[in-house]
Amino acid sequence: MTSMTDVHPIDPRNVQLTEDGKLRHFLSIGGLSKEILEEILDTADSFVNIGEKSVKKVPLLRGKTVVNLFFENSTRTRSTFELAAQRLSADVLNLDISKSATAKGETLMDTLQNLEAMGSDMFVIRHADSGAQHFIASQVTPDVAIINAGDGRHAHPTQAMLDMYTIRKHKGDFSKLKVAIVGDILHSRVARSQVQALNILGAEEVRLIGPKTLLPDNLAELGAKLYTRMEDGLKDVDVVIMLRLQKERMDGALLPSEGEFYRLYGLTSEKLNYARPDAIVMHPGPINRGVEIESVVADGPQSLILNQVSYGIAIRMAVMSMTVSGQMQQKNQQDQNNEEASA
Amino acid sequence: MTQITLPEVDQLIAQMAQQLKDHIARNGRDNIALVGIHSGGVWVAERLGTLLEHDEAMGMLDISFYRDDYTRVGLNPSVKPSSLPFDTEGRHVVLVDDVVMSGRTIRAAMNELFDYGRPESVTLVALLDLPGRELPIQPDICGQQLTLAPGQRIKLTGPDNLSLELQESP
Amino acid sequence: MKLTICGGRLIDPAQNIDELIDIHLADGRVLALGQAPAGFNPERTIHAEGLVVTPGFIDIGAHLREPGPSYKGNLRSETKAALSGGYTTICCRPDTSPCIDSSAVAQQILDKAEVLSQAKVMPLGAMTQGLKGTHLSNMAGLQHTGCVAVTNMRQPVESTLVLRRCLEYASTFDLRVVFYPEDHWLKADGCANEGALASRLGLGGIPASAEAIGLARVLHLIETTGVKAHFGMLSTARAVEMIADAQTRGLPVTADVDMAHLIYTEAEINGYNSMFYVEPPLRTEADRDALRQGVKEGVLSVITSAHLPHEEAAKMAPFAASEPGMATLETTLSQGLTLVEDGLFTLPQLVERLTSGPAQALGLTAGSLATGQPADLCLFDPQAQWQVSHDTLFTAGENSPLMDQTVSGQVKYAIVDGKVAFERQ
């Protein structure tokens, strides 16, 4: 299976990495190596049991300031980033910026430059425009670690990595796994990041399932097989990932009704029987019971939906510590180069 | 340059086990918990545990997240999870490392240890004690004191057949 | 003013001339080629050894930004940029602010251009009032004032009936109509070529069929109304095929492609480089190849600059939130020369697409150096290397995709109505 990065050259200015190939921003899964993804998963491993300690913190980012910049509201996602930053002992500032306040790029830049001047070390950003974080990392504040908490339809890399963590923890070796992602693929930044991550980590097969209005043909080039029927797509899979269906999809003639969607693509225990008996069920949340998934499945023994949440904190801690580490190394390298140049 | 004769590790550990036994008896601390610092300290602690016939599972600390030089050298990419498979509250912790030099690793380890709870006491055991202390930390029990020539580093190799190795840094 | 240009390589595709030959200008017109007429005593002689001498370039559809926000440019800056790029005539876009839907706005532009006496300006008028696509503009009045054609740019005319009436009305006055074909609803909120790349980047896609459907709708109405039409800035292989087919069937249609679509593909937007956000979007390699072939064969008889100057901030935003367009007037020649260098077409072919091609498409008296024609000329050094920068560009636009790069081919003189209107120091 070819991954998308083979089809199109990755951005030559790969802003995510330092000169030595260390993570300094976390913007998208595309362009990252298997080694880096595994390093994220391994690092997260050491954070997962931090909850066992009576002091649920490590002093890694003590004295650092993390700013949560959410141009789209999401209390849930923001809270997990906030908790992750706090467990790393960072100071956290939450800013919810409505789209109207930054309708123009100029003001977006002004906002960011102000925050940078306040001595922020990391921006966790969610934005409605695909590529917004990329723009910010490459143009505006290159010395502040940028973590993408979701951009438009493009990427939600921390969500994808916590899903990879869940899969690795409960299913092991990716090379033996068939994974199906079901629902509104078209609008899903989560699905895009998952497909890329699964390809890079060497999953045996990645399948996308949905009606053609939500499943454009060209997504196959991301490295996935496309299915329109659950009974074909779920056959023999080891992992089923359900996506959230936004209510506004009934507008714009993408779907006739929630009822018909549920009947065709909702994960019921009956449809889950197409998958392998030991298949696991995941969902990035929040779930719409009776739209994407039946309650018995969501709460059933094969569901790992709640585990995903706790792994999410560890993944975000891992990414935060790795990017700050990369930024600092880059800075030290530059200082050294400057010293040598002036000497 | 003076040639240093490197001690036999197993011999040192046997001797340390005896000292530790005496130390425990002297202080009446029969409820000890062994904790090794990743990675050399864990190997030494394992052998001490065998010699002391200590059958409780041992704790392991990877202090990467507690290092004070994180802002200079960055994150160790091969960080391992710390695990203390017991409650440290009220226990007499025996903290084991291979080499004590600046004392910074022990500082980090104690910080992490205390994030798990409040032990009754902490005893520091080290295979080697090298000069160069930067913090007020001294091992209670130590295999041997050693002075290296400038530019030399010492490394414990394992986990099977523990031995010491001298490295010349360039 | 009497002027002689001697020693240059004169290329005039309209007369099928490509040779080292002198040209003599008097009273704003071409007096003679070759031997000077007896008693001709030029006030100035330009020694053009090593230079290529051509009719001044003509552009269909550059945005001159006046009236409108002056921080994006104005007639002074942009007509100067035109001369620096070899253009002596600009048929400027009507989507100014306010738009060119009245004689008053058109006259204001013409008056100012005349005072500036840099490049000649021949506006395109709005086809509907306010470009809103519902009411006819005063086309006869616009034509009388000096508009050389009408267009609705990319603004939709929702009702096919209204569109048909626009064409019928324009054809009443033999007024040409320019289309930028695109199905508004298929385009939706797209900003990139629909395909795997846009999908991966999470950018809204504009399918190639949006162009084909827009084009098909207009072609059917051209057939029934007989209006003379020109199609601007085509971007897809399918559109080239459809134009070729229409031309074969004898429909009065011409078409152009802008230089960016001959040079770049969608691959440029990888990494969200907003400098390459243009309308229509950059497409696939197959599309680019078909466009190049269309230019070579003459199906596309015009190459345009699609010059759309912006201030820096317009591009300093996430891709879809940035403003589309490139500032290109001063680099179109250099980019065209790279295509000649690569053997895609000959230098005379390139010159033809920049001179007589657009003149014929809009029925202008320009684009040829035949005796008696207006003396609008461009003299360029095809070898001269220069660096594109804020210092070397005259446009107010800061959105050149070639910024800070070194390119070959530079205009040394631009002559308008027999006068040296631009001379590079």
UniProtKB/TrEMBL annotation, chain B:
Which GO molecular function terms does the record list? uracil phosphoribosyltransferase activity
Determine if Transmembrane is one of this entry's keywords: no
The Phosphoribosyltransferase domain sits at: 7-138
Known Pfam families for this protein?
Pribosyltran
NCBIfam families to which the protein is assigned, alphabetical: PRK05205.1-1 (NF003545)
Matching entries from InterPro entries are given as: PRTase-like, PRTase_dom, PyrR_bifunctional
Keywords of this entry: Glycosyltransferase, Transferase
Database matches in CDD domains: PRTases_typeI
* EC identifiers of the protein: 2.4.2.9
Top enzyme category? transferase
* Listed SUPFAM superfamilies: PRTase-like (SSF53271)
**Provenance organism:** Oceanospirillum sediminis
- State the name under which the record lists this protein: Bifunctional pyr operon transcriptional regulator/uracil phosphoribosyltransferase PyrR
UniProtKB/TrEMBL annotation, chain C:
Q: Where is the Dihydroorotase catalytic domain?
A: 51-236
Report whether Secreted shows up as a keyword of the record: no
Q: Which CDD domains match?
A: DHOase_IIa (cd01317)
EC supergroup of this enzyme = hydrolase
Q: Which domain of life is it from?
A: Bacteria
**Keywords, A to Z?**
Hydrolase, Pyrimidine biosynthesis, Zinc
Pfam families recorded for this chain? Amidohydro_3, DHOase
* GO cellular component terms given for this protein: cytoplasm
List GO molecular-function terms, semicolon-separated.
allantoinase activity; dihydroorotase activity; metal ion binding
Stretches assigned to the Amidohydrolase domain: 341-421
Entry keyword annotation includes Repeat: no
Gene Ontology BP terms: purine nucleobase catabolic process; pyrimidine nucleotide biosynthetic process
InterPro entries per UniProt: Amidohydro_3, DHOase, DHOase/Allantoinase_Hydrolase, DHOase_cat, Metal-dep_hydrolase_composite, Metal_Hydrolase
NCBIfam families noted in UniProt: PRK07627.1 (NF005791), pyrC_multi (TIGR00857)
Q: Which PANTHER family match?
A: ALLANTOINASE
Protein name per the record:
Dihydroorotase
Q: Which organism is it from?
A: Oceanospirillum sediminis
